[in-house]
Amino acid sequence: MPTVRLNGEAITSWDAFHDESQRLFGFPEFYGRNMNAWVDCLSYLRDDDGMSTFRLKPDEVLRIEVQQAEHMRAQAPEILDDLAFCIEAINDRYADYGEKPALELILL
Q: How far apart are CA 3 and CA 9, in angstroms?
């Protein structure tokens, strides 16, 4: 299963979150560095749209692990909450297209 490991200790601001996301997910140079852009980049993981370095097979799931999640919750709780909300919204979007969820959030 493809996995992205976010470093919860390093994510203390929105800038840090977007830096880490762009690097780990392989978002394009023109990535908008906001949660709307984050959702857009991860909404077509089973298509060849070039918005991420990941391309999932029909039944595959991209696992997003937040390591040191308690540290992130203490330093940037709104980012962790928005991350969970957006993952759920993306999975709902996949369901609307008749596809299986594409993302799984794991807090470590």
A: 18
